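Q: What would this chain look like folded?
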Amino acid sequence: MSRHLLTPWAPESGAYALPGSLLLKMRLGEAPEHIPAQLDVRQGWAAAAAKVDGGPIDRLLRHHANGARSTRVFAAARSLTRAGQRHLGFDDLEHHYGMSRSFRLEVDRQTPVERLASVLRELPAVESAMPHYCCHTPFAAAPVQPVPIDLAEAWAPRDMVQAREALAYETGDASVVMAIVDTGVALDHRETNGRFRGGYDTVQLGATDFAQGVTLLGESGRIDTHPLDEFVGHGMACSGIIGARGEHIPPGLGGNCWLMPVRVLGAARLPGKPEPVGLGAIADIDMGVKMAVDLGAKVLNMSFGTADAALDAGLPKPHADVIRYAAARGCVLVAASGNTGKEELFWPAAFQEVIAVGSVDGEFRPSRFSSWGEHVALCAPGERVATCALEGRYQLATGTSFAAPFVAAAAALLLSRAGRRSFPLDGAAAKDLLIASATPWTREVHGYGSGILDVYEALRALDRKIDQDPATEEMLYAEPDAAA
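A: My prediction, written as C-alpha cells:
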C-alpha cells in the first residue's frame, strides 16, 4: 500500500507534517482583520474563525477540506495585554514581515494538505501556503546522562574561549535579556535559581498530531507563561552554559544578563528510542520566537533546526519571516549548525541574519559530527560541556546545540558592553565582531567559519571600534551647550 494512502496529509518531501494543518500567508493588504490570534483562542478569549475571506479561499477550503478553522499565528506586539483583541494593532514592521498576514488553518485530518496548499497558492491574494511541518531536537550528537562533574575538567571548554578573562572584563548587564528558545527549563535548579525572567510556552501539540507509537509527555496544547520541561533537559543544558551561578560547574558565560525561557518544543518518546526528544510545530516555534522579541529579548539562542533537504523545493524556508522580523528589531540571533557531520543547511542556522555555530573538540579541531558549509560563522566548544540537567543534576553535553549558547552568551556580553558605553549595537554588527575576533584555524579548514570563539577578544574589539568611532568621540567630548 502506498504511503499516501496511509498518510494522505504527508508531503512528498518526507518531512513530517501535522495532519489536517497548513500555514497560509496572504499578500500585503489582503489579510482579513476578523481572524483571532492563536493566543486568544488557546486561552479561551476567542473562537477560531469559520471563514477566511468569504470568497475564493473559503470556496477552495470547502471543496477540498469541507471548510477550515482559522487562527492568526502571531499576536500584535502592542496588543499582548489586550485579551481577546491580540489580532488588532499590528505595526508597520509586523505588516511588512508578514506577522499580521500569517494564518494557521485546521482541516479534516485526512485532507491531502499538500494538494490543498498547491491550489491555494494559485490565488492572487495568497503569498504562500504550505504543510505545517514539525521539527525535533535534541540537536545533540549523542544522548547524555546526569554525571558528577570534575570542576577542573569543566573549565577546559570555557578556557578555550577565554571565559574567565571575558567575565573579568565585562560582567554583563541585567538589562540584556537572552531567550532560550527550546524545550523549556526546570525552574528549581540550584544553579539557575533567580536567573530566569518570566517566559512563555507556545507548544500546541496534541496526541492526534502524530502516528501511533509516538507518545507525548507532559503538558501541551496550551499557551501560557510556564515554560516547564520535566523530560528532555535540552533547554536546561543550554541555560546552564549561559546562566549557571557557578556552584558545581563554572559560572555561566552570560554573567549578570537575564535568561528568558521560551518553550517551543514539546516532549515525546519515539518508537524504539529510550531518550525523550523535543518536538515542535513550525508555527509554535515561530510564535515563541516572536513572543521572545516582543517581550524584550535581545539575544535568542535557537538550538534546533530543520534540514533543507527534507523540505519541498520552492516553498518558503521555515522561520524566514520571524527571523527577519527579529533582526529588524535589532536582535542577535544564534543557532546550532547541525550534527550530521556533512555539508548541509539547517534552518534557521542558514539564514544570513543568524549566527550559525559549529562545534570544536578539546584539541581545537572541528567536531566530527558538526555540520558545515559557507553559512557557518564560527565554532565554539561542543563536546563534553559541563552544564545543568533536570532534577537538580548535571550533565556533560555534546553537540552543536551546546556550542551555540557560548556564542549567544558572548553576544549578550557585547550588548552589555555597548550599552555601558552608550554605543548602538545591532545583530549584524555583533555577528561581524564575533567573526572577526575569532581565533583563526591553525590549519586549513573550510566550512566551519572564521575560527573559534574568543569572547575576551570580541569585547576588546568592540572597545576599539567604539574608541575609533567619530560619532562616539563627538558625543563624549562635545562642549556643553552654551544655552544650557
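Residues 388 and 394 are 4 Å apart (CA to CA).
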